[in-house]
Amino acid sequence: MNNAVITGGAGFVASHLAEAIADKYNKIYLVDNLVRTNGTRNINHLIGDKFIFIKAEVSDFDFSQLQDIKVVYHLAATRINRCAKDPIEGHKFLADAGLNVINYCAENNIRLFFSSTASVYNNPKRFPIEETDPCEPHTIYGAAKYYTENLMRTFAKSHGLQYSICRFFSVYGVRMDCEGAYTEIIYNWLSNIHNNNRTLIVYGNPDEKILDLVYVEDVVSAILAVTENWSNEVYNVSTESGISITQLIQVIKEELGEELEIVILPENRTDIENKRVGSVQKLRNIGWEPNNSINNGIKKTYEWIKTL
Fold it and tell me: Could you write out the DSSP letters of every residue in 6-50?
């Protein structure tokens, strides 16, 4: 048998990853506490003989009950703003969960993929950000992700753990989360437009806020690329081309053919950077390139929203 586990398996990126690796394994266990999605809507079309859903909290789940696991894809995470409101819960869902997964993999000679985040970088001094740039996260979310990364490095030395890490930048696309910060503005805006509300709310200066938006299909292809060869490396997953909120709104106008009203309000958050653009040279060195332009990604995301 050749089985795999995806933690956070009911989530946005995880549901696309599950589809992409379906032919690689006999069984794929999707472990999720459903705190982030509030249901299995992203994976209902998958659950069956091959895909087995397990509702459980990753931080205390007994992975040893699963048989013949070859790879764990650790994608489980809470939201950055939820961590800020409840640091104890955030630590449990991120740091404690990371330790539980890492210890299981290390003790059982199981390869581990981990979805980290661009939030490990804080106040970058140059752009695009490289993987070797300083990591001094200023949020519980970023700190817990970076802690998990460092645990993996420690267990690689002490137990021979084989791993790959991707630091996701701003991921968006079909099945994306429906609330929160960062790219969730894309869902909110497109959903409002579909419901005939053409007023877009922007917090802060839309020319100063720069996102590195990467479409979910490109994120999954990056995961597949870094898990072809387990080199114990960390990779940024981005597009290396930032887009301002002003430019993003223009793309939406172009793709949807809509006239939009923009309302600018004062920024009310301190846990997000104004600019975060990542280098993907390391990924390019192993043959990866993003295939979805922002225009194409927005179009596909809007077509999905129209079906909801």
Answer: EETTTSHHHHHHHHHTGGG-S-EEEEE--TTTSSSTTTTTTBTTT
- Would you say 196 and 265 are in contact if contact means Cβ atoms under 8 Å apart? no
Burial 237-263 (b: 16+ CB within 10 A, else e): bbbbebbbbeebbebbeebbeeebeee
Report phi then psi at 168, rounded to 5: -75, 140
pTM: 0.96
Query: Where would I find the beta strands (DSSP E) of the chain?
Result: 3-7, 28-32, 51-55, 69-74, 111-117, 163-168, 170-172, 199-203, 210-211, 213-215, 234-237, 243-244, 261-265
194: closest CA among 301, 37, 38? 301
Which amino acid is located at 259 in the chain? E
Rg (CA), the chain: 19
| Neighbour tally for 7: CB within 10 Å | 28
Give the pLDDT confidence of 186-230 residue by residue, as tens digits: 999 999 999 999 999 998 999 999 999 999 999 999 999 999 989
